[in-house]
Amino acid sequence: MFCIQCEQTIRTPAGNGCSYAQGMCGKLAATSDLQDLLIYMLKGVSAWAVKARELGLAPTEADTFVPKAFFATLTNVNFDDERIIDYARKAESLRNELKTQSIEAAQKAGIRLDTLPDSASLLLGTSKPELLEQAKLALPNLGKEAIHEDVMALRLLCLYGLKGAAAYIEHARVLEQQSADIAAEFHRIMAFLGTDSADADALFTAAMDIGQLNFKVMAMLDEGETAAFGHPEPTQVNTKPVKGKAILVSGHDMKDLELILQQTQGKGINVYTHGEMLPALAYPELKKYPHLVGNYGSAWQNQQKEFANFPGAVVMTSNCIIDPNVGQYADRIFTRSIVGWPGVVHLEGDDFSAVIEKALSLEGFQYDEIPHEITIGFARNALMAAAPAVVENVKNGSIRHFFLVGGCDGDKAERSYFTDFAKATPKDSLILTLGCGKYKFNKLEFGDINGIPRLLDIGQCNDAYSAIQLAIALSEVFECDINALPLSLVLSWFEQKAIVILLTLLSLGVKNIRTGPTPPAFLTPNLLKVLEDKFGLKNTTTVEADLNAILNVA
Ligand code: FSO
Ligand code: SF4
Fold it and tell me: In angstroms, rounded to a whole number, what is the distance separating the alpha carbons of residues 497 and 507?
């Protein structure tokens, strides 16, 4: 196996990356290899989807399937070999269909098709050992000895960035948002990656194209979420348990949460959000359900303890899942969509009765805990509503600086940087936050500035879109470039959604972003230097040094 896609990857002086029997996330070598083979096959589907489009065909099934199956290979998403193999076989049959249709269409039109990479024609073996043998072709660092390390780093940056965009494409699709233009651009880049290009400039351009693509995807997802559930509004959320039977919904997929809320009405079950589902509590069409009682627990990395202590059923709608056997709750956790863990019940379709039955069979919370409320719901609309007051306070000197502190959470001790950073921000500054990284400080008290809460929770990681909209609006009011605003981004990263959000920000020209706790291990010192020179991208150092640097510069 070779996997280096997330922040917790194994780093050794001899070489970085998870490359032995198992990754740090628990992914076994066979699973990792099968995921590589799946990605290889998906590149082949995309190559034919590009051809099909050129020939006037509409590869709509590939438009849906490729991003969805690609999502299954993100960190902490799917550990189930059989499901990965099913995706690979589906990719093969879809690719073969597209190939046949494209060849026919080309013959009719008298067009000669150029040769496509091997992934466009590989026939999968019938047994798992055969597939594992074929997976050797698909290792992401295949032939690394002969490839310049910066080229390899750029390939991985593109691969992991596009993976993040694929996840958001699938999140948008669930909310009935799809775009043929976005799909075409996605396949174009995926097919390009399938060519194993060694052209550093072309790869760098592709990385920026992925960022631009993802900006459109986040806009589409924002449209899907607000059309389905209304605009988030500032909302007080209880973070303590309430007496009664219980279901906990984690991950990002709010459509699943809505289905669960509908199907649990009148059943005496309380529904809680966990991790990245917290922002759902601010959407009018979700918060209207009285049995959506609050948020339980914190970010994904604490789930083994939090799910173990939760006396009800748990639904994992998307990333990030970790081994449920450790906390002995594998018999009461359910996976959805692209998520998978061997032996855990996977639910397809809209029927959650298995979850409801499980919740009813469990004891639930025996008593109410004293409520602790936090405020959420400052996405695009609420931020824009607050913008005039914010502008006024900037003009009269009450607000000196804006910080966007957020991203992914994780369990490394160094991540306390983000708690300390938020705590150390000056009292005349606002802190915008998003992603599960917010749990590092979202239960702390930050007070307000003339009635404006100092801590503004924008939402999920993809709601970076709202933060960008606010920055654009402020730059228009103050008639300056985004980079001239008193705004600093301090982002925690963990997995590939964060990589693509970073690429989005860079492709929009946002400069001087700080990321931590460590630089991606797949980037080389040269490439990090290029990113620093071009975009002012820096790694976090110490809270004191970073804050001094930021505030002196501003
Ligand atoms: Fe967190 Fe996991 Fe949203 Fe990520 S739950 S780490 S960036 O998948 O998706 O912030
Ligand atoms: Fe290692 Fe991260 Fe890959 Fe898991 S996802 S194998 S921890 S690099």
Answer: 15
